[in-house]
TrEMBL record:
<dbReference type="InterPro" id="IPR001845">
    <property type="entry name" value="HTH_ArsR_DNA-bd_dom"/>
</dbReference>
<dbReference type="InterPro" id="IPR036390">
    <property type="entry name" value="WH_DNA-bd_sf"/>
</dbReference>
<dbReference type="InterPro" id="IPR036388">
    <property type="entry name" value="WH-like_DNA-bd_sf"/>
</dbReference>
<feature type="domain" description="HTH arsR-type">
    <location>
        <begin position="3"/>
        <end position="97"/>
    </location>
</feature>
<dbReference type="InterPro" id="IPR011991">
    <property type="entry name" value="ArsR-like_HTH"/>
</dbReference>
<dbReference type="Pfam" id="PF12840">
    <property type="entry name" value="HTH_20"/>
</dbReference>
<protein>
    <submittedName>
        <fullName>Transcriptional regulator</fullName>
    </submittedName>
</protein>
<dbReference type="GO" id="GO:0003700">
    <property type="term" value="F:DNA-binding transcription factor activity"/>
</dbReference>
Length: 120
């Protein structure tokens, strides 16, 4: 698989993981620091296996990592996939900002012409 395909697959995994509000909430919690599975599960009305499934999706997407410290298995946020997704979105944001700037210029030009036409 070439680098472009890997990048595309990573973006797909990232966006698929971010599509779920529970996973986004888990990431928001991990942005404040590492946490155990039970700490991550506490705010949700879900079974432990359901939370574990969400964590596996996040882990597969590279958005979190889990380690083992004796009996504690802390989860931590991995920011690299989020930076990549932000960069991808940023390209389109710039494109649309440029298009909207051109539209704004055009509308200002039309309005100026209408104002000049109305004064005659």
């Amino acid at each position: 698989m070439d680098e472009q395909s890997l990048h595309s697959e990573q973006l797909s995994l990232t966006f698929a993981a971010l599509a779920d509000p529970t996973r986004r909430a888990i990431l928001a919690r991990l942005a404040r620091g590492q946490a155990s599975v039970s700490e991550l599960a506490a705010p949700f009305d879900m079974t432990q296996p359901a939370i574990t499934k969400h964590l596996k999706v996040l882990e597969r997407a590279g958005l979190i990592s889990r380690s083992r410290d004796a009996q504690w298995r802390p989860c931590r946020l991995e920011a690299a996939p989020l930076r990549e997704a932000s960069g991808w979105i940023g390209q389109y944001r710039r494109l649309w900002e440029e298009r909207l700037d051109r539209l704004d210029d055009y509308l200002a030009e039309v309005q100026t012409k209408e104002n000049e036409h109305g004064k005659r």
